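Changelog note: in this version the structure field was regenerated for every chain. One regenerated record is shown below for reference.
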Amino acid sequence: MSCLSNPIKTLLRKAPKMRREDSILPDMSEVTTIILGGGEGKRLFPLTQSCCKPNISFGGRYRLIDVPISSAINSGCHKIFVITQFLSTALHRHIIKTYSHFGFDSSGIEILSPELKPGKKSWFEGTADAVRQNLDYFLEFPTEYFLILSGDQLYSMDFRKILQIAKSTNADLVLAAQPITKNDCQRMGVLQVNENQMITKFLEKPKDASDIEGMEFPKNLKNQFSKAHPQKSHLGSLGIYLFKKEALLKLLVNDHREDFGMHLLPSIIAHGNSAAYLFDGYWEDIGTIESFYTANMKLTYQNPEFNFYDETKPVYTSHSNLAASKILASQINNCMICNGSLIEKSKISHSILGPRTVIRKGCVIKDTYIIGNDFYQRPALTKELTELLDIGKNCTITKTIIDVNVRIGENVTLVNKDNLLHYDGENIYIRNGVIIVPRNTTIPDGFTL
């Protein structure tokens, strides 16, 4: 008899035997993967005021960029490019440190940043422009397909299934999609498909409800999803594209507009042979403070939709030489606590504590993501100026995101007592009711919000 409880069993899935489905899925050696990681992420301010969106910490010890890279590796992708632009130095450092450790050297994963070229502009002006400006690098390697991913989404996907559809339909483009509600249509690309999953129409973020009339997906496709979606009548694009090489080159050369979703996808779908891959799994776009906060808090649930504990689909990230966490006389309920944390006589619930989180006695913390620290003590600018990075004694913190290398003084209360949806203070903000303390901030003793 197993000594593991049922909730833990559902998290800890051992690698299954080879399924017949796996044995017939195509090999990814003929696919070049391109991950777009240059987003500025204005809607994630203040987390992105000194950090690019793909490099934001997620789930305590991961970065958002780890998700698409790990899915590509788990799918057997042999060549991966990451295109960066905004505040990219720390992202480069993370990718090099992480994936060289796991044996993925520069021959497998390459980083591309804007560079001056004869007769060409420097900065990328959109998703399609970023790919277009780097075609010379992509074409150095033999490939038949280009898989284009975003660096700021949360999912676990087997990209071999997308390639399988491309081969079986001879499609120029395969676009991953999922059922969405009519309200969701305004924030996503919407596609119309026939009963054979071939795409007949595409609209990027339609503003008027009349634009999507008649674009509901066929009833015969609804049985491909494990759960019924009575309110989800349309198909939304997940921002995951597989192009046949010749089709993408022709598209980028003949259409010089900047964005895939807004410009190039409607063009190729109107004139080409495009299919949809219907994804029956968890997917989330981490584009706002609200979605970032909610996605992290869901990880503390008993059975989260996104599972970091599935050994069949590991998420890779950098390793740190930290000691195990030490918890003294505290009450901890439904939390994720990373290595190097020190907690003393406090109550913590439904929260995530990142590496080197130090919480002094008497604190009550709930529904909060403390991203953690790069060191226990902030490097001194002078011999006299030193500062420990911790949560001081007797603090009460609720529904808050505390960024990297923050010090919270003693007797601080962060609970949004006035129930504000939006607030801009001095080194403290509220977005959608969530308090955010930016990185490298010090909150003085007794502060209340």
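Spot check on this record: The radius of gyration is 23 Å. The chain has two domains: 31-299, 326-443.
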